[in-house]
Design brief:
Strand content of chain B: 5-15%
Number of strands of chain B: 10
Mean pLDDT of chain A: 95
Helix content of chain A: 40-55%
Structural class of chain A: alpha/beta
Largest interface: A-B, 75 and 81 residues
CATH architecture of the largest domain in chain B: 3-Layer(aba) Sandwich
Low-confidence stretches of chain A: none
Oligomer: heterodimer
Structural class of chain B: alpha/beta
Number of strands of chain A: 8
Order of helices and strands of chain A: EHHEHHEHHEHEHHEHHEHEH
CATH topology of the largest domain in chain A: Rossmann fold
Helix content of chain B: 40-55%
Strand content of chain A: 5-15%
Shape of chain B: globular
Strand order of the largest sheet of chain B: 1-10-7-4-2-3
Mean pLDDT of chain B: 91
CATH class of the largest domain in chain B: Alpha Beta
CATH class of the largest domain in chain A: Alpha Beta
Largest sheet of chain A: 4 strands, parallel
Radius of gyration of chain A: 17 Å
Radius of gyration of chain B: 25 Å
Number of domains of chain B: 3
Strand order of the largest sheet of chain A: 2-1-3-4
CATH architecture of the largest domain in chain A: 3-Layer(aba) Sandwich
CATH topology of the largest domain in chain B: Rossmann fold
Number of helices of chain A: 13
Number of domains of chain A: 2
Shape of chain A: globular
Number of helices of chain B: 22
Chain lengths: 245, 460
Amino acid sequence: MTAGLFIPCYVNQFYPSAAKSTLQLLKKLGVDVVYPAKQTCCGQPMSNSGFEYLSQGCNNLFIDNFSGFDYIVAPSASCVLHIKDHLHSAQNEELATIIRTRVYELVEFLTDVLKVEKLDAVFPHKVGIHHSCHGLRGLHLAQMSELNAPPFSKPKRLLDMVQGLEQITLDRSDECCGFGGTFCVAEEAVSVKMGKDRVTDHTKNGAEYITSSDLSCLMHLEGILHRNKSSLKIIHIAEILNSTV
Amino acid sequence: MKQSETKDHAGLAEDFIKDEERVNWHDGALWYIREKRDIASKQIPEWEQLREAASKIKSNVISNLHEYLLQFEANLTKNGIIVHWAQNAQEHNEIVYSILKAKEINQMVKSKSMLTEECHLNEYLGERGIDVINSDLGEYIQQIDNEPPSHIVLPCIHKRKEEIGELFHEHLGTEKGLSDPTLLTRVARKHLRNVFLTRRAALTGVNFAVAETGEYVVCTNEGNADMGAHLSEVQIASMGLEKIIPQKKHLGIFLRLLARSATGQPITIYSSHYKKPRKGQEMHLILVDAGRTRQLGRTDFRDSLKCIKCGGCMNTCPVYRKSGGLSYHNTISGPIGAILAPNLDMKKHADLPYASTLCGSCSNVCPVKINIHEQLYKWRQVIVKEGCAANTKALGMKAMAWTLSSPGTFTNAGKAGRWFLHNIPFVVNNKLNPWYKQRDMPEGPKESFAEWYAKNEPKR
């Protein structure tokens, strides 16, 4: 099994350690991982701003980089959802279609494809899970609080396998953090207020770390935490799952 | 009427958020209703099936609207209700005015009707010497404050009880400093009771119009629609074309969904059926298009006409909760307003589909399963293509630069890093970027993952 490692643009630039953890974790679990060097972006910043019609260049480049892999795995639910929902190509629709069905966010890849039952990870801290909306309501990584349906949570299941980790319960289990792509600058005041309130929920319930399968949410929350000199930290779920003593 | 003409949603929201204590309270009040809705919906095992059924019935309605409307009209006429058709707000207002004028009526009582808010009926009639009093308590409070409703179910949810006390002191002569909700309600009731008894005409909205029987149903918690209608000599109902349901038996589905989605109640206190005039009474019903058929013609957005106006999407929307309904500068606010408004005036409402993180919670609570967040995304594409994206143009230019730059420049990692910091809207590294007002950027690592990988992993 060969998996193409898709590292979103901002993760590559700002959070290389989460990317390294993803690579190492997948290797530990016996996956043959390749990082196509010419990858850039999934095209979401444009599309979510209403400029989907300009994203064809990005889409074709994504297809060039990721065709032929058995799976494509990324430590970002949001970018994965964008590819799943919006990757199309006038030239190569067939390849685009294959990619749309083979792209996985890391957590779902671990639970649904690799069917991981056991991890060697150790992380002796109190952790709150921040569900990114794209991971939750787009990829269904966990049950959505609005629905009358049985509960489940893929990230929770994985974190349960980590030694020493204590998961805290939040007052609002799946409220949006307010990042929202360009929303975070176009609607700065609302975005920050939403972020502050998510942070408070974690602080109030005793978290030492906020984890998520989306670094975009975490980058936004970290920006608020850092500005307010909070001791609460953010960490991508790959780093926890890959952590050792 | 108090309303900002110049600021967009982001600007109005920023003003609202300045009073953080109010935002926290507003957010908490609406979240409490969302939680009540969760509890109520989870007590019904078949909840998700009910939503599915309602959605399908409404699909049938909007696909066969023409036939249902004719059937409804024929049955209304048979029942003795006079039917009027209005293509737009102007025609609607003219019809109401002509009905009242013919009877020499210059005072009317009105129960909650978002449609007449949308048509600015009160102002229109006011200019012609006809006095309209809103009888829904929340709407009444908004009316005396000369402000539009901020929420379709809870019109003054953004106001504190102390502010309402102040308004009552000013307009109804209550004692200064009185803010006890029960006492204030008693004062309003006494005042409204007199209004009900003296008004000869009453106008109501319509929640459900049954094509099969030619009756319509109005849901309220205060009984104000009934009080107005029962004491009136002329009863008028205004409804958007989409309020049709095919058969009376379908009410069982919609009434169960409506109140639970709106406030977490099992049913509204009053679900009143109106079918024919009393002896000596005159009943009119006005069917209003006002852009609805245009929306029906938009394949991607026609499902927005399924809306039963429960307000559930507003209560769950974190953007709505933090920014207040008035920041949407449209009669229908919140997520549903943001997909309805661009159809009415795309340029004026171009900012609304962007007033969302696309979190998707709205679509999940919607009792008729409107794909609201997907329609928000699609409106953004339409707004850009139609050249209405003035507010987001700057972002658009950056997006374009991104596209043009991606394949070539990115191959050089160092260059890409610099390019990235200059072009991605939310990380542009200068102090004018709104990101930095209340947030820091992560400290850039020494090397990107791509650089590290190139050095440390064998070439393949």
